[in-house]
Amino acid sequence: MPPSTTRIFPPEYKTVDKGHGRLEVRRIQTSAALNDYLDFPYCGQVFRITRTVTELKTGKTRKETVYGITSLTPDKADPQRLLLLNRNHWSIENRSHYVRDMAFDEDRQQIRKGNGPRMMACLRNFAISLLRLAGAVNITKALRDCLASPLLVLRLLGL
Fold it and tell me: For the chain, which domains are there?
């Protein structure tokens, strides 16, 4: 057993969130000590995030560990900021996919060949962005409004 003054692992930062019937504990450890050993351009630091999610009704727990590399150095992103950046990335990602699936039923689309799927995703993202810039909160309702009034679409496009 190593002496208590020796720290083997870097210190962790932890958050605890309760909501949607779950208790979520997120822990992050970061280190720049491996930078000289990694053959990865612009490596600022490495990190490990461990998520433990407990369903409050059932008590069932699942645990997930992910590893990452960032170009952000420790002076630009401490563990707290890295964990926040990681969490915000997924909330934006989930929000985008949810809207695309609910408003456009994207999961059931039949276009699967060539550049078709990518082009349709770009068009859907363009439509969502345009509606959000116009102040739409509910994209599905805004799409229905556009169907009911084609002139509205032209106005949104600046025509």
Answer: 9-82 (2.20.130), 91-159 (no CATH)
